[in-house]
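1st attempt posting a full record on here, be nice pls
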Amino acid sequence: LAIVGKDNEPLYLRDFPLPNSTRNNLNAPLTGNDHDSNDNVSNAQPNDDMKQKYDDPFGFFTESMPKNTGESHSSSLRNQFICHAALDRFYELTGPNSGNRWRTPGATGSEAMWVGLLCPVEELRVYGYLTNTNIKFMAVIEDNDEAGTQLQLREAELKTLFASLHELYVEYTLNPFTKIKAKIVSRRFDESVRKSINAFNGVYTLNW
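the predicted structure (as tokens):
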């Protein structure tokens, strides 16, 4: 999942994998390894394997290395590259020369912000959503529907997911202590995002 600001500054980039070992534990609460902006960061140094795993060439989460092990506020290197590349397609579809052709005629509300499929990358599909303030939401999902028979259902569920994430983002920015254009590091935001994604995972397996 990626949330990118109007000037293409990264606000939130996080993987929400669903391995087989955790399928039956979707609603488990975040552990103490997850930290909010006011939490103390462990002094333990990551080993070489962790440094490689959490390599961050685009500077998305330089300050958000996980404590020891556990859930991360970061994203895999591969998904960072995918999201970075998808921004070019995002601009092609929604930029000043697009003439708003990406918008569904007559659409209102969250429907009018739905961009749809940005690009396929091997077994993954990248979908986009653009707010009226030019905040970009991107979801990288694993496509298990090779025949395309569930396309309409998938897109309907994605629209619901994006609308929910948009609402959470607005709620987050309404906090008077929120730093606009700063990376989102919030336990409450993470919990709420996870719940929304778990609801989507009830229909599709995601690889965020």
